[in-house]
Amino acid sequence: MTAAAAPADDVVLAADVGCRRGGFRVDAAFTIREGTLTALVGPNGSGKSTVLRALAGLLPMDRGTVTLDRKLLADPSSGTHVRVEERPISLVFQDHLLFPRMSARDNVAFGLRARGMTKAAARSRADLLLGSMGLTDRASARATQLSGGEAQRVALARARAVSPRLLLLDEPFAAMDQHVRASMRADLKAHVSADSGATLLVSHDPLDVLVLADEVVVLEEGRIAQTGTPAELANRPRTDYVARLAGLNLLRGRARGMHADVGRAVVALDAAYDGEVFIAIRPTSIAVHRVQPEGSPRNVWPATVGSVELHGDQVRLTTLGPVALRADVTRSAAAELGLNPGLPVWLSVKATEVTAYPA
Known about the structure:
Radius of gyration: 24 Å
Oligomer: single chain
Mean pLDDT: 91
């Protein structure tokens, strides 16, 4: 992931988006390579949808450039702004935006007809796409007769029908139930692999990132906080948001050899370090005790249970104390320990379960 200044031969999109919405500013530079999907993630209000709208031409930029296949689409400094309808870009909104009086088939065929394809050919292409999404029996239904998940699948088919060079997806699976979502992920993955264009996906679902993304761009407060492959972000998160996305606890401290100071506590490390470090700990690596443990763990801290909730097939605790951590325990362990908010406990972590890396 590099800045947009000098795109490589396989780069489809080179973007340096700079724009303001009210008092909020977005500045984000990244590239997307041919035949790949980049996930744009971040907390609510971080500017993700603003970036998508700027790339599509729906929102003017006040600085930066957008280049698609080395063709300049936007550059405020030179007054360049290619119109929305002239950009080879499709954008799928979270709220579908289908034509309500048209059938699902005609919604998908609309863009093809606008590009000069005959009505019969466009409808035939639309039927193929709807069939690939399990909507053959809904092709004749009007948009107003579709469920939210069906409407979103139609919107995806319509966006893909015109073979855009850049496909922009804003939470495309949000309205779908779990089994349809899994099928759509597989379908989108196959589409990306077979297509020569580029895809930018906005999602809050960590599974979308893990399953679909070749690269990840993390946007926080309008700025890029971290980029990399899903594995790189999962192994070395650099912000609390990325750590939560990866399912990790993240601490920051100053290391001196095999120990690091993290506020009111000291953490024993897996190796020797010197200087500022990040420290990642998996919730499943944290043992919870009612009394101070004895024995091998080198990291032991007092804590108070903050909250208790189900987390998959385990119980997730948030804790308060010298080191505030999230810990996962089995349901039977939670019942045996009598875990409730306000309960004093002890946390222990083996040094071998602590991952440190330079900050």
